[in-house]
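Input chain follows. Return structure tokens only.
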Amino acid sequence: MTSRIAVVGATGTLGSFIVDLVEASSDFELHAGLSSRDGLDGLDGADVVVDVTHPAVSPGIVEHAVRAGLPVLVGTSGWSAERVARLSTIVAEVGGPGVLVVPNFSLGSVLATRFATMAARFYESVEIIESHHQGKVDSPSGTAVRTAELVAEARRDLGPVAAPYADQRARGQQVASVPVHSMRMAGVVAKQQVVFGGAGETLTLTHDTISQQAYAQGITVALTAVTSVTGVVVGLDHVLDLD
């Protein structure tokens, strides 16, 4: 049996990629392809709602779908820990299907973030440099925010990372104590570097997205897994067998 997928943000770069992926799959069928400005009545009758819109409108779209009893896959950036906590309250109140929030659909990105959390316990100096194309409207990226939050969680018993002169704007924005530097420039799809500094050495974990094809496998996994999610789950790693 195929799953009927409604994509909100279908006219965007990632949204149109997901639409093409759904239409090419025998496991899914496109129920609706909506822009972020369209009414949400088109979600009625879908099995899964995919939100790949804009940080400013994403929460309203996701809440609408949750209150309609529809499982939601969120690929929009801007879902901070505070925003996720508010959504968790709504999902618990409704008691319906869950929400899977995926900061990055690339399997390589998921693995790089996992490696970063492993390294975080061994280095006090940690900074993130993330680069995206000129059209990305939010910064830091959702991937960088998620990575910083997980680094901080891994160091919970050790304390925050060392970030001298963090009051200076050129030192980046601190996310969970980790300085994050964002670049928006031509010639880039997506790239993230997590740099660890220790006595006499640095360790750099780099993930470089060359094309959107990097997202295909992760999107397929997420579309399949979201119907089994309960509550709010953040990260593709939670629906992959990484242990």
